[in-house]
Amino acid sequence: MKPMLTEDIRANVLKKIDEYVTKAGGKITKEDIWGKRHLAYVIEGNEEGYYVVYNLEIDKSKITEIQNKLKFMNDILRFLLVLED
Questions:
Q1: pLDDT tens, N- to C-terminus, the chain (85 residues)
Q2: Which keywords, in A-to-Z order, does the entry hold (predicted)?
Q3: Which residues contact residue 75 at a Cβ distance below 8 angstroms, ignoring those fewer than 6 apart?
Q4: What does the domain layout of the chain look like in residue ranges?
Q5: Considering the entire predicted model, what is its pTM?
Q6: Is 7-71 in CATH node 3.30.70.60?
Q7: Helices (H) and strands (E) in the chain, counts
């Protein structure tokens, strides 16, 4: 997420992600908040980002739906969804 977000806005973003996953029939099994970290490269003028790692249980067919919703969240700089075998 963008590093300058207030705690309230970050909490709302995380809540919205939880809602997207739940509505898609999945659930968050683990949430690991890493906090503010230096980015490997500048993204949208930001040298830092607020990192959060989720483990999800969700049907593979719903991944694209989640990705499409995350793309349009302005407060998220980058995201990566990885399928675990």
A1: 999 999 999 999 999 999 999 999 999 999 999 999 999 999 999 999 999 999 999 999 999 999 999 999 999 999 999 888 7
A2: Ribonucleoprotein, Ribosomal protein
A3: 1, 2, 5, 9, 10, 13
A4: 7-71
A5: 0.87
A6: yes
A7: 2, 2
